[in-house]
Amino acid sequence: MTTAGYVIGASLRPGAAFAPECLRLRGACARVRKVDVPGSTAEGQPGLWTFVEWKAAEDHAAGITDALAATPRPELGWYADLAVGDERIVVFAEHFRIARGDGAGRAGRGLGAPPRRRAG
């Protein structure tokens, strides 16, 4: 089984690097794309986002999660997530797991999720 996710370039703190040893961004399992997201950004966030998409073996999920937790700019509400089987790991300054489709879990209350990023 694999894990998959992406990092938005603008979400990285200055000087931070998303570079887990298990992940290679070259080859068929990675893609970089730029997306125009007008009207769906928070104050201070750019209107163009660069997505770095990747896939890796599921047994690398913990290392990838730790690498993601070291990179976001929480002052602007940035987060990252990755899919692992039937779960989604959501990473702010810390991370938590939820079942896919679990609306209550998506709320992120008490886990560092800014109100504008909470589902409920």
Report on this model:
The chain has one helix at residues 61-69, and strands at residues 2-8, 30-36, 48-57, 80-84, 87-91, 95-99. It has one helix and six strands. It has 120 residues and is mainly beta. Helix content is 8%, strand content 32%. It has one domain (2-117). The protein starts with a strand and ends in a 21-residue tail after the last strand.
Could you name the key traits of this structure?
disordered C terminus; 120 residues; 32% strand; mainly beta; 1 helix; single chain; six-stranded antiparallel sheet
- Nearest-angstrom radius of gyration? 14 Å
* Class computed from helices, strands and strand pairing: mainly beta
Integer average pLDDT:
75
- What is the H/E string? EEEHEEE
C-alpha geometry: globular
Helical content, roughly?
under 10%
Q: How many domain modules?
A: 1
Strand ordering within the main sheet: 2-3-1-4-5-6
Number of strands: 6
- What kind of sheet is the major sheet? 6 strands, antiparallel
Unreliable segments of 5+ consecutive residues: 114-120
SS strand fraction: 25-35%
Q: How many helices in DSSP terms?
A: 1
Distance N to C terminus = 30 Å
Topology:
Elements (H helix, E strand, L loop, with lengths): L1 E7 L21 E7 L11 E10 L3 H9 L10 E5 L2 E5 L3 E5 L21
Antiparallel strand pairs: 1-3, 1-4, 2-3, 4-5, 5-6
